[in-house]
Amino acid sequence: MSLLRITSPHAHGPLSTTRVMQTVLLATLPGVAALAWFFGPGVLVNIAVTSFFAIAFEAAALKLRGRPVLRTLDDHSAVVTATLLAIALPPYSPWWLLAVGAAAAILLAKQLYGGLGYNPFNPAMVGYVVLLISFPVQMTTWAAPRGLTAELPGLLDALRACFDPASFDGATMATPLDLLRQNSDQSLAALYEATPQLGAWGGVGWQWVSLGFLAGGLWMLYRGIFTWHAPVAMLAALAAMAALFYDGGGPGSGGSPLFHLLSGATMFGAFFIVTDPVTSAVSTRGRLVYGALIGVLIYLIRTRGNYPDAVAFAVLIMNFAAPFIDYYTQPRSYGHARGGRP
Amino acid sequence: MAWLADYPLAAAVLALVALGGVFGALLGFAAERFRTEGNPVVDQINAILPQTQCGQCGYPGCRPYAEAIAAGEAEINQCPPGGEAGIQALADLLDVEPKPLDAEHGEEAPVKSVAYIREDECIGCTKCIQACPVDAILGAAKQMHTVITGECTGCDLCVEPCPVDCIDMIPQAETLKTWHWPLPDPAAGRVEVIATDRLQDRAA
Amino acid sequence: MRRVHAFHGGVHPPENKAQSLAAPIQPAGIPPQLVLPLAQHIGAPAQPVVRVGQAVRGGELLAEADGFVSVPVHAPTSGTVSAIEERPVPHPSGLPAPCIVIDTDGADAWAPLAPLPEAERADPTKLRERIQGAGIAGMGGAGFPTAVKLSPGPGKTIETLIINGTECEPYITADDTLMRERAGDIVAGTRILADLLAPREILIGIEDNKPEAIAAVRAAADSDMEVVVFPTKYPSGGEKQLIEILLGKQVPSGGIPADIGVVCQNVGTAVAVHEAVALGRPLVSRVTTVTGEAVAHPGNYEVLLGTPMGWLLERAGVDSERARRLVMGGPMMGFSIPEPACPVVKTTNCLLVPTEAELPTPPPAQACIRCGLCAEACPATLLPQQLYWFAQGKEYDKLEGHNLFDCIECGACSYVCPSHIPLVQYYRASKADILARRRESEKADHARERFEARQARMERLAAEREAKRAERKRAAEAKAKAKAEAAASEGAGGTDDAQAAATADPIQAAIERAKARKAALAAGTAGEPADRLATLSANVDTIAKRLAAAREKLDAYDGGEASVAEALKRGVEKTEEKLARAEAELREAREGASEEA
Question: In which element (H, E) is residue C509 found?
């Protein structure tokens, strides 16, 4: 009998980092499917190409840093980052845009800080913001949704758009958030009347994509991948802000709560970005605060800021604040008087 | 003062000078008002030093070495009993770069030792008693001496003066009392295989 | 029905208790050799009172308690003490410790047992003495001397006595079977503990995954004992967690349950107390669960303390090919034992021999993703991942600031960690490091105090010497002055100048005085040559005598130690030198004297 000397605990729970990452990837499926249905297969090409670049950059960085490459790649975190970034980018983006995004996310935001677990900022959102600031034109052209365009691009078109962008000419359209922000004179009712892509709630296509990500998020919640605190706090805060400034749907209105919940990257952000454990606050109380402040910021940036979709900026700003939130939301340890803080 | 408006450069210079004067006065006042008594940094350094009083650093005891460090006369890497951990602590305290231990002053012993007098051989010369910096040796002239183990710092200073060489430095073995868990080695994982075939042998 | 409270965190690992519950408790038998460590408890090791070769009967004292926080060790059966030496003991370090080894004779002859007389059972001191004297230490796993826990100290009244039948660790069923089969003994032991502490309420806490045990204890319990059932969750059997579950109160950090009027005892301890008091039987055996997939006959065994684990495992049919590790305790808090020769001790509640498939070797740790699952699982409401960062950076102040010392090392954080980081190991090591540092710095402070005291003493002695010299000098000066004054007053005029010169030039005067002293000394030596000769010759005599003694000692020493002989020889040589010097001096003095004459 050769006995192993292992320290306790000898038993281990079923969860592993790799399993967590795989679950996140699976949970994106409904949202991605909705994206592909309404805006064409561009998003699939986005995911494939970005993942390829992300894995390549991650492997190169690990090699340079002298870390075990295969064992670390096995945690799937690079693919998750790439997938989330690719979902956030406009479909039919050219390959170089995806490469730059992957480089910013993996190299700049993750590996330069020491790899998984050490990055203070959400890598996918860093990649997104770097691209948004550097290439505003490419980043603000969003494909027109099914039903509002004569013909959706096929898979071949999507590949062409990626690798030979000059030859691709897809129909694009302003996103619902854009429309609402640019509106200054019409009442909301008139605006919905005038623009078909606003659809019923959050915009044609957009509302179903949002519901897809909501479904995936709820599934992850059920699987115990994260706790409800941050996403629920974020959605509640955003809805509350929208309700507070709804203003009866007049020209100055920022949009209804339902519109804000189901438009843009709200659901995607709430369940896939805000829940990123590495860059968020840790304690449950901290996550409530963290999520709620993101919700408030999203509304403020959407209605008052320069960029229509605010999730990335709101998340990055709150990433700054996460350690600070953690410091002030430390739980009371067993056997210590209430209010005792080290 | 209105003329100042015509000479913006002069105004700026004046303002800077005035500001400098005010803050200088303030700093001077603060330095006087909140002057610290004594030299607390010596105490802080001394608190880090292991207090073996062995003199390996070249100073007659830990406090003199602490004073020398505070005065900038000594390097922080002259204390073998303090070892790398001690150097690190001193570097943190004084906000300087840590250096490797200066081999000139000796090497860090992996295990602490205590002095032991072979009592049969002791001739009672009291030389070791005079040498011991912490009064850890008990005895009188022409009487056998012995080391109070609990008080011994393992400084070695008693070994040299003994005319009959009856003092040994005995490394203290690890016991159940002194053993403690090591930090996991992240590179190695946490598996350590202890192969033992006893049961198999007996079963066979 | 009592309201049951919840504690923060906790996990639900697979219970795996059914395997060892199939059969009732069975005696393991008498192994050919018993190895009894002197320290099977927390506190000072016991002191042996038997010698090698002595025959002992079952129940006889082998080693007595050394102080208040200590318990004795008794012979589990009859046999001969064959050795008192260091043997491997069940300890995570794998280091050996002093043990008494008994070669059993198989007769199992026992010394007569003496139950505590009824009349003395009302006396708490007598009861405590009996409990300590029977060698009882907490049987739940920690092994703290029970009598100490039963002495809450003056001014502390015990409101609640809790009997812990939780057994929340997976796999272990020792307490479960004990409650099923010996509920009466548990209640009897509880009664004794209650008599001793006089609590207001007596609670017996059992997790709801042991319905049979609950029924058995309920049936046996007295009317003033309440059996409280609560949901299964690890680690509800932890003393602090159990108190929170049952009472909704928390033990203050750094305190003990008695601080809030609670004493907690394990069911096994209650049985041991009953046997010690009512039967007079010391603690020499215990119920140990032997389980794991590598064991053919898992179950609960009544094992004599000191039984080698390997022997017990063979009885249980261990498959040494499939056995990957040997764990004493459960899979959450037990530690792996590198050596099957280790004996079963008072705290061995379980021997777990899992196969690789059952409890796989953990993969290398991945990076912490700050998922916070550990913080959710922590029953002490700590921030394990924060502690992990600080432990890696050895930031001891921050570790203490984040209440590292409230960690009960239950392993819930490591259990849930998706990155397989051995968190508990970091905390254990850091705690030990901090304690070691504290000890070291205390020692350093002590050494500094002694060093400073010594410096002060040396300075004082030097100052005293200096003061004496100055005193003598002053006295001499005063004398000279008085003499000069006397001379001045005797003669007139001429000496005035000399006196004036003397006062004007003190240095000159000092030189003069020194000259005068020398002259006086020379005159003295010359004057009393006989005295000096006598001193010197006496000196020669003493040294000669010392030399003779040293030579005798050298001759007498025939021992093998070359260094000792060397030292003695050197001593003789030195004395010879001294003698020669003294003789030369004496000769010189004699010559001088004869010249003068």
Answer: helix C506-527
